[in-house]
């Protein structure tokens, strides 16, 4: 009886396997894998029925389909755009932005192409910002342009199911004539700064000389000490000193009328 039961069990299992294989061929199931960096959009008879987290799923493809969506951060680069500032200067500005999909349902089902939509939004925001500013303000406050771009585009990105993480101006380019004009302005500024530094140095030197002259007037012995110091530092054998007129009488010895000349030694001495 036990042997017969085993044979019947084996026969039933074989029949079941055949039926499963036949059913799979007639109505095949499909295994779908959603990776860690993806989210799956599940559709039942064409209608969105929910989002799938990472994992493996068995689906009945006749009625159900899954669309994987990459949710990793992405970068978008906008090349040089010709924009006009408020003072009539034409320039080219290139922008880089980083974003990620936070709501796959909105990004896929509510927007035809969320990348193109974000691209156009940033482009229009750049034109709006540059059109309201003068060229000098744009050159001096690039960080302000970044902040305004984030302010104008973050809300729009949320409407597309995206999160804008970073947007910044990569480069600002000007026509050839404007480049020459800016180069001349920078050159003039640098030359003015150099002239100012030279004037400051000359003023400090004159101030030091005036202080030294005042100290020598108060104490004439300082001039003799300075002369001895110059003599010690000199490597030559000749030293020329320029003495004030007030010190010349100190170096001359006037002879009195009754003074006798020193006696010359005789031959015997």
- CATH evolutionary superfamily of the domain at 74-174: Band 7 domain
Q: In order across it, which strands form the biggest sheet?
A: 3-2-5
**Residue-averaged pLDDT:** 78
Radius of gyration: 47 Å
- Give me the secondary-structure category: alpha+beta
Shape summary: elongated
First-to-last CA distance? 167 Å
CATH class of the domain at 74-174: Alpha Beta
Helix amount: 40-55%
Write structural notes for this entry.
With 269 residues, the protein is an alpha+beta fold. Among the domains are: 17-69; 74-174, Tetrahydropterin Synthase, Chain A. It is 50% helix and 24% strand. The chain is built from eight helices and eight strands; from the N terminus they run αβββββββααααβααα. It has helices spanning 2-26, 104-110, 114-131, 135-140, 142-159, 176-218, 221-233, 248-251; strands at 30-34, 38-44, 47-52, 55-59, 64-70, 74-84, 90-101, 162-173. The strands form three sheets. The protein has a three-stranded antiparallel β-sheet, covered by helices on one side. The protein is elongated, with a radius of gyration of 47 Å. Residues 247-262 and 264-269 have low confidence and may be disordered.
């Amino acid at each position: 009886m036990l042997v017969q039961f085993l044979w019947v069990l084996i026969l039933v299992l074989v029949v079941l396997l055949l039926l499963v294989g036949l059913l799979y061929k007639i109505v095949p199931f499909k295994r779908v894998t959603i990776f860690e960096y993806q989210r799956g959009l599940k559709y039942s008879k064409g209608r969105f029925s929910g989002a799938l987290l990472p994992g493996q799923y068995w689906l009945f493809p006749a009625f159900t389909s899954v669309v994987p969506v990459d949710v990793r951060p992405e970068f978008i680069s906008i090349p040089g755009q010709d924009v006009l500032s408020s003072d009539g200067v034409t320039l080219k500005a290139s922008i880089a932005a980083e974003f990620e999909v936070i709501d796959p349902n909105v990004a896929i089902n509510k927007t035809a192409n969320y990348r193109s939509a974000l691209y156009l939004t940033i482009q229009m925001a750049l034109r709006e910002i540059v059109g309201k500013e003068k060229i000098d303000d744009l050159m001096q406050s690039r960080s302000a342009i970044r902040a305004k771009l984030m302010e104008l585009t973050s809300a729009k990105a949320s409407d597309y199911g995206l999160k804008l993480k970073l947007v910044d101006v990569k480069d600002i380019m000007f026509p050839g004539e404007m480049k020459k004009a800016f180069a001349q302005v920078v050159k003039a500024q640098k030359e003015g700064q150099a002239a100012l530094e030279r004037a400051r140095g000359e003023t400090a030197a004159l101030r030091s000389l005036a202080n030294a002259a005042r100290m020598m007037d108060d104490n004439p012995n300082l001039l003799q000490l300075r002369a001895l110091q110059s003599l010690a530092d000199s490597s030559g054998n000749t030293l020329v000193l320029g003495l004030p007129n007030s010190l010349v009488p100190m170096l001359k010895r006037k002879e009195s009328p009754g003074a006798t000349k020193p006696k010359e030694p005789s031959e015997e001495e």
